[in-house]
Design brief:
Distance between the termini: 26 Å
CATH architecture: 3-Layer(aba) Sandwich
Number of helices: 2
Number of strands: 6
Helix content: 10-25%
CATH superfamily: Gcn5-related N-acetyltransferase (GNAT)
Largest sheet: 6 strands, mixed
Strand order of the largest sheet: 1-2-3-4-6-5
Radius of gyration: 14 Å
Strand content: over 45%
Length: about 110
């Protein structure tokens, strides 16, 4: 629903999309953005594709002057984001019936 104002990053293997993530700017100064809709094909999870996507997204943020990236992480993905340098902040919450944590990374 925010596609027209977002940047999209995709991982492709043999002409097939195997992972994706969306970055949406959330402040008028362009210094803060939200990582959204992170997904990797289930049979390929754990092979570093998600890390590659997030690393490319963070490199892009540096070129754009984005200083903070936030995300709503499902509880089962919190460890992934912690390993990528994100931190948990604020209280856990439920979104679409699933427990989530607020996470952020300052660049």
């Amino acid at each position: 629903m925010k596609d027209e104002h977002s940047w999209h990053f995709v991982a492709v293997e043999e002409h097939r999309v195997i992972g994706c993530v969306v970055l949406f700017p959330i402040d008028s100064e362009g210094h803060k953005a939200q990582l959204m809709q992170m997904a990797v094909e289930s049979e390929l999870q754990g092979k570093g594709i998600g890390k590659l996507l997030v690393n490319e997204l963070l490199k892009f943020c540096n070129t754009q002057g984005i200083k903070e990236v936030v995300c709503h992480s499902r509880e089962n993905a919190v460890q992934f984001y912690l390993q990528m340098g994100f931190e948990v902040y604020d209280e856990p919450f439920v979104e679409v019936g699933i427990p989530h944590s607020h996470m952020r990374l300052f660049l």
